[in-house]
Amino acid sequence: MWKENVGQQKMWQKISIIIPVLNEAQNIQTFLQKLQPLREQGHEIVLVDGRSQDNTCVLARPYVDRMMSSDKGRAKQQRLGAKMATGQVFLFLHADTVLPQRADQIILTALYSAPFSTSSRDSLWGRFNVRLSGGHWFFRIIEQMMNWRSCLTGIATGDQAIFVTKKLYNDVGGIPAIDLMEDIAFSKRLRKLSKPVCLKSSVITSSRRWEKNGILKTVLFMWSLRLQYFFGVKPELLVKKYYSE
After folding, report:
1. Domain limits at 122?
2. pTM to 2 decimals?
3. Nearest-CA neighbor of 90 among 111, 72, 70, 73?
4. 29-34 long-range contacts, Cβ below 8 Å, gap at least 24?
């Protein structure tokens, strides 16, 4: 496990990578194999299945440290994963998102060295920059806008692989148990106590939704959902629109 002392203080050593999944049998092994070097460093992978109807759990079992099932819904799954995790830092990762190499060192170094306004370095959180997997030039604009907006507003999305110390996670009451926009609501809770660490290192997340439904159409659709959420439309109504698209 990676260890380093700076200023007579020890960095956090164990990261719990919490992954909500649902019917990911086609890609789950390839995805999890890329995370095995982090397990070798002493970190843990916590996989929470939303009652998949395929072989996701069977295929994933050899590559994870903890596995459990819950009703589907990212918020529910991630909350259960955090409850069962044993690390001092939680990293919430989507199954279509790839971390950069040595992501653990990047996270731990950033948390330790970042300027902060809270009274303890146990009360910090952050996110990665995001890069979409598609090659279309418009994806580069979308990425830049997502990353800039996130730093300016202190709001991160799940695609950006949010990480947070266990203490801060518990202090804010965890991820809100809502059907959609849980990442937005979670960020709002966190930023009340601490500004996010905005890492320049990028995760690569799938652009399949944009490519399937049309880039501009998807951008407008997602902004429409966020605008409705901002004006008070309930997440349980928005989630029906999200999954009907």
Report:
1. 11-206
2. 0.89
3. 111
4. 29/59, 29/60, 29/63, 31/95, 31/96, 31/98, 32/60, 32/63, 32/64, 33/63, 34/98, 34/99
Q: Taking the CA of residue 3 as centre, how many other CA atoms within 13 Å lie in the half-sphere pointing to its CB?
A: 5
Query: Could you give the 3-state DSSP secondary structure of residue 104?
Result: helix
Is residue 70 helix, strand or coil?
Answer: coil
Which residues, other chains included, contact 46 with Cβ-Cβ below 8 Å and sequence gap of 6+? 16, 17, 18, 19, 64, 65, 66, 67, 68, 81, 84, 85
Q: Contact at 8 Å (CB) between 71 and 51?
A: yes
Whole-number Å distance between alpha carbons of 148 and 138: 16
The partner residues of 67 in beta bridges, in order of sequence, read 47
Question: pLDDT digit string (tens) for 9-21?
Answer: 345 579 999 999 9
- Total domains, the chain: 1
| Per-residue model confidence as pLDDT tens digits over 133-189 | 999 999 999 999 999 999 999 999 999 999 999 999 999 999 999 989 999 999 999
Q: How far is CA 126 from CA 81, 144, 185, in A?
A: 19, 17, 15
Phi then psi dihedrals of residue 200, to 5 deg: -80, -20
Residue 60, in any domain of the structure: yes
Q: For position 200, which CATH number holds?
A: 3.90.550.10
Residue that the structure tokens 């418009």 belong to = 138
